[in-house]
Input
Amino acid sequence: MSGKYIYIALSAFLGVLCSLVSFFPYFIVTFLFLLAIAKFKKLKLAQIVLIILMGFVFYLKGEWVNVHNHTKLPPAKTDFYIEYIKDPIIDGNLLKVQGKERFYNEKVLLRYQINSEEEKQLLQSQSPYGCICRITGTLKKPAAAKNPNGFNYQRYLATKEIFWVIELQQSPLHHCKPIKHSLSAFVKQLRFEGINYLEKNFPSEIAGLSAALIFGDTHILDPELLSDYQRTGIVHLLAISGLHVSLFIGMIFYIGLRCGLTRQFMTNFLLSLLPIYVLLTGSSPSVIRSALMIALILITEKWKHHLRLLTIDALSLAFLFYIFGSPMIIFDSGFELSFLVSFAIILSAPKILKWHQGNGAKMIATSVTAQLSAMPLLLYHYFQLSFIGIAANLLYIPLFSFVYLPAVYVLFMIQLLTGTTPDILIFFVQKTIELSNKLIQALGNVPFTNFSPGRPPNLITILYIILIVSFFYVWERGAYPKKKVHIFVILVMLLSIQPCWNWLNPYGEVTMIDVGQGDSIFIHFPHGRGDYLIDTGGSMNFVEERWKQQARPFEVGRDVVVPFLKAKGITKIDKLILTHGDMDHIGGANSILAELKVKQILMPSVTEPSETEQHITKEAVKHGIPVIKVSSGDNWHQGENNFYILSPKKNFTGERNRGSVAFVAKMGGLSWFFGGDLDQEGEEAIIRQYPHLTIDVLKAGHHGSKTSSAEVFINQIKPKAALISVGEHNRFGHPHQEVLRRLEALKAKIYRTDQQGAITYLFYRGKGTFLTYLP
Output
């Protein structure tokens, strides 16, 4: 079976997909795969039978997981006995930690609001391992996604076998009793203490990088720096990769041999060390993959006269062991990218790399191979690619491998052995890190280096795979007359197929995005003829004591609206309509301006704009974006779609909600009323001025508050449907029952984001239908 274990790995993977994702389509793919290898690969009957058998075994394993992957904890339970299994994450005054409920043997996630700075310092220094704690708390379901392509925290935790979040009423380390240390708990405690040691003894730049490269922990890195790494396409360097593991194991092996130890002893020692190293570095998918491969290669070395194992076989067997032990890992993006890129590089290296002379050319070829092979997954998970990533990798892979990695180990060992580190070394490493971080920030902001077509549909994903395989096939072939032309054509198709798909899409949409207690409405016209955003949502951020402040607090514009738009391939907003100055409507505007190209901003013509409006205006000036103050009588047209501003009056003075931009839109075969937080007095002024106004769809004012949607207004415009953007279990009691009764009396269909998530009206040639993200 030498060189053929990859077929077993593919069969096993398809078997797991049949059970955990969808049986019928992946069964068809499995059938076609088996036909292909039977016809084109010279396999013996026994080998084909083994491939089929392994696929069936992994299908059964997936089915077993499906049956058992559910909670056993009673929802009403409030007292728990917890053994902690992960390092606590403390961000501001919020602590999160994974534990296992001992009686039900079920993993849970615990959350705790820290009460004081002293308590925070104690929790940061106190190891959670080696004890069982009796805690009291409330079981809550993790948050599910409420917008298309949004991050589904509930599903993510379910793949980790976690179904409940326990909201604690007291410190998670109260009422704890020591238990006998297991080896894994002891190693995890060493890791916890090692990360704390780095934080206490090194500057933040060195501590953050050292924690990432030595212990696989990125939580103490600056979140903005992490974003820069992601935009530049080199965030994988902050994860302990196969290269890091190989360098570390190679170093240990070399030192052992130089000390006079035998190869046999060092092989056995490393086989024992690898599981400890995996735990010590956080057990990430890339580390587990590398450790499994190295273990298999070491075992082969021990039995080299009886067993022959190629690199691709080691990777395939590592894949098999990994998904058999944890089938749900196939949903982990780190696992997917680690194995996919490794397979691509190993399969392509024998032919592609031999055509390139010199280390630089080989590095470029390897980087291109990694980027292309990962392209479908990167677009699916992150909606964009970084073109600058290939160049950045050429610079930063050697920097990390041969400068940073040895440097952080040397500094750590010197500090451990002597209790101090020479200032000159600290200065040199710190300045090097600072300079490289500034360069990463600059590279991440280079214009036209991001390809952002959005999350590809299934058909486009299939086309991507076909084109990428075709590219590698052409690249691997020897020289022939039209090779460069074929490569160029395939690359153009890869970069144009999804943008063309987006442009050809004949459907328009109006989507009320679920931004919690706030407003944000996205309008897209067919064939890319325009994209509008009405309000941006926003989070109320109060000034808190420094110790309570989170490194990167949740912000609706950045964390909800921008991902929603990028997933659709939206990189440009033609009109950003900000109805009025309240934070829950325009607080996310800064993120929109920072992440997307905005061509024009519309604001109400008021004499006293809010501080937030003034700040947005200043930012718009910096970006060269025209800001237009609109008032009643203004109008514009977008193809056959018409927009008419009804309120406020020019240079409006008065209550802010009453000065909201209110306008009627004729689009998708319906008439729409958008009025921000317009109050009843403002509504009544509109119907006095437009006594024959009727509307098909009403965006209910002020989140369904009784201060809006006056009875006289509702009765005149007679909406057939009403959209209410409102936060789940909000403290204001929105929407008000009186407003709901008024709408129900007119038999208007009511759509609410708190109950149904994002609400979309999808239209085509003047006809459309409403769709809700949640049933």
The CA atoms of residues 208 and 221 lie 5 Å apart.
